[in-house]
Design a protein that fits this description.
By secondary structure, this protein is of the alpha/beta class. The chain is built from eleven helices and eight strands. The chain has an eight-stranded mixed beta sheet, sandwiched between helices. Strand 2, helix 2 and strand 3 form a beta-alpha-beta unit. The longest helix is centred in the middle third of the chain and has 18 residues. The chain starts with a strand and ends in an 8-residue tail after the last helix.
Length: 251
């Protein structure tokens, strides 16, 4: 079984982080290590992360790190730099994973022609499941690269996003330069474009559950329009810095 390091970037995630960490105590087999990388939270996120150490009873190495430069790309790179596992898995603080996560990741990357993987993300709220948007997110994993990068699609490119719990071999991650720290958005898509040179990008036929907080704030129609707009403009090469203005942080 591979050693899987789970990297969790956080910024004001006191509402979600505790539940996510509690679920990670149930992983069987357990993760090799868990690295919570905070980007300067002003709420109780860091305290929750430190308090969670008792949950693991020393069975898993859990580190709470502080990244001087906030930003998801920089925080995930910082965590990957501190990681010691064979595989790095990037987990959002508001995402729930199955208890066989480590086994699924290990089995997927045991196939040497696969360079990166991710799950099917089901977007859920306290009283609803966003079936329509979840279906669209599933489909765009395939249609986006087919539409914008057809030559790479047939080489194995699929477009994964952070809420799909992306994972890859640590040495491949660094060989391709990791996440681009200059990207405020779409850093995950950019990583897929780099990792496809190492092998296929693969969507595992398993579910993870991500918070619908962004859709709840925007509404389904507005959220779908924004996702399509950002995806299209990114696909034709529009700057991620420009696209970030349409994708506000919501906690």
């Amino acid at each position: 079984m591979s050693h899987v390091s789970i990297v969790i970037p956080t910024l004001n995630e006191q509402t979600s982080l505790g539940r996510t960490l509690r679920q990670l105590t149930l992983l069987n087999p357990p993760a090799w290590e868990i690295l919570v990388v905070d980007g300067g939270s002003s709420d109780q996120t860091v305290a929750i992360a430190h308090n969670s150490l008792e949950l693991f009873n020393g069975t898993v190495n859990v580190q709470v790190l502080s990244c001087a430069e906030p930003g998801r790309s920089m925080q995930m790179n910082y965590g990957a730099l501190a990681a010691t596992g064979d595989i790095v898995c990037f987990l959002h603080a508001d995402t729930c994973v199955p208890d066989d996560l480590v086994a699924v990741i290990s089995q997927t990357l045991a196939q040497q022609n696969i360079a990166c993987g991710g799950f099917i993300s089901l977007m859920v709220g306290s009283q609803t499941t966003r079936w329509g948007i979840s279906l669209h997110n599933y489909l765009k994993t395939y249609y986006a690269p087919l539409l914008f990068k057809p030559h790479l699609f047939f080489q194995g490119l699929r477009l994964l996003f952070g809420d799909q719990v992306m994972f890859c071999r640590r040495h491949d991650f660094w060989d391709c330069g990791g996440f681009d720290p200059g990207l405020p958005i779409m850093e995950d898509g950019d990583l897929c474009l780099k990792l496809v040179k190492k092998g296929r990008i693969y969507q595992v036929n398993r579910i993870v559950q991500s918070s619908d907080r962004r859709v709840a704030k925007w509404g389904s129609w507005k959220a779908t329009a924004i996702y399509l707009y950002i995806g299209f403009l990114w696909g034709i090469g529009v700057s991620a810095t420009y696209l970030k203005r349409f994708y506000q942080d919501i906690r």
